[in-house]
Amino acid sequence: MKSYNRILKTLPPCQSARYMAEAKRIHKQLLLGLSYRELGGRKLIIDPNLIRFKLGDYRLIFVFSNGAFQPKAFLARKNFESYLKRR
Questions:
Q1: Which CATH class for the 4-86 domain?
Q2: How far is it, in rounded angstroms, from Cα 48 to Cα 35?
Q3: pTM value?
Q4: 23: burial class by Cβ within 10 Å (0-12, 13-18, 19+)?
Q5: Hey, which end of the chain has fewer CB within 10 Å, N or C?
Q6: Strand, helix or coil at 23?
Q7: What is the DSSP letter of 4?
């Protein structure tokens, strides 16, 4: 599993801290059994195991495998389409 620090390392520190807290909150609630839809997540059509969350101008992607959600990537919105095409 990628760490949040590794996923968010490209952001300025002030944004990183804000999005780190939000990403951890989402992940914690997913682990507690809350539906990803209640948290604002959407399944990606290209791969139903990937769940996307919007965080400002960024997209946080979780992968659902072995019954658990794991953080996969944190991307700028403008890079989201190219990320999906590379998969």
A1: alpha beta
A2: 15
A3: 0.77
A4: buried
A5: C
A6: helix
A7: H
